[in-house]
Prior knowledge:
This protein is α/β, with parallel strands linked by helices. It folds into two domains: about 150 residues, Toll/interleukin-1 receptor homology (TIR) domain (Rossmann fold, 3-Layer(aba) Sandwich), CATH 3.40.50; about 210 residues, Toll/interleukin-1 receptor homology (TIR) domain (Rossmann fold). It is about 50% helix and about 10% strand. α3 links the parallel β3 and β4. α2 runs parallel beside α3 and α9 packs across α14. The longest helix is centred in the last third of the chain and has 26 residues.
Amino acid sequence: MSVLHRAKDRWLIWFACTKRTGEGEWFKDHHHWHSNINVFLDSDELENLDLLFDIIRTSTRSVLVILTAELPKRIWCAGEIVTAFKNSVLTVPAICDGFYPPSAEQLEILPTLWAPQQTQLLANSGVELKDVAKAYYWLLNELSPMTLPRFGPVWKREASVVVALKRCGAQISGSSSRMLEASRQNVNAGARILITSSVADAESLSTCEVFQNILQSHLHVECAVVHNSLQMVRWKRWAYYFVVLFFRGMLRDPLFAEILDSAFHAPGRSLEVVTVLADPHFDFRSAESYAYEGMFRDEDHFSARTNIQRLAKAFRTLLMIVALPFTPVDSFGLQKKQVSEIALRFRRYKERAAAAAMDEADDDIVRAEFGEKIASEVGSEEAFLDEVSMCSKFSDTVSI
């Protein structure tokens, strides 16, 4: 990879702590708005641990360690942390929702969680197991952590990215504060394409946001990720498309059920549905069985406001549409290629100028019909989203 030959003061490494996460991709997608420093995901080079650890030793200015519940299970994370520790590389621990630091006793037995082949890989790369507990203790007890939220308004999470960049020694661009303010003011009220999934799950939410940014850049049409049914009701007036990213457990998610019900039955435009397969473990056969039979046994799992018969019909409608792939674990280049294929389904925006004129004419009708109501909604969105994000942190979806 040509990027491996950059000068040392140009590097910031992001530790994704799972094979490749939406959080890491989301950070890469947003950091360039605030700094021109280069960001490297460790998951881009997992095939060669020697090279990965060498990057930290020789080509890294700072390391951002993303602390999630998956951290102790990943041998390459242990190797990276040990390498940063032994080479005195500036390291910043970033605590995500749901992370609970292991005790000293748990750190001592950490290597027993790994298979012998994995520990041998570390040894072959020059990482001694006796240093693992020391490095983790240093990371969790001697360094000053920051918080990296995975839920809530985008602008607040962007602000945490700026904090992370500063902590890692990056120079922040002069336009950063303006970008944050623009993000804070943007409530996506004019989005033409609405995207959702099981957004109470951090990984699903991050993938939706990565997909949103790539699709928006490709089509030059405003897109928005829907976090709750209130947003769907409000934004549906302006939108033409409803995109659902399939993830395991999605159909059993009460929050997704409410969003879906609003998409199909709330007042507003009739949305054309586009489905995307974002999880290779999503089982269409089990999902179809659940939509026809299982969900009726789980009726108490959903909100009392949910019409189960109506919701089941909406589920079945989703499953009848061919879902094109979008792979969170693939390279950015392949993701862009996948999105370019998916974008062909948004036929309204094939001719951008003509579509813009039609959109504006339709919007005039909406303003005439909902003018006072739209004005009264401004400012209440963020408070509602904050409340929903708090609930999201404690949600538990069941895989199907």
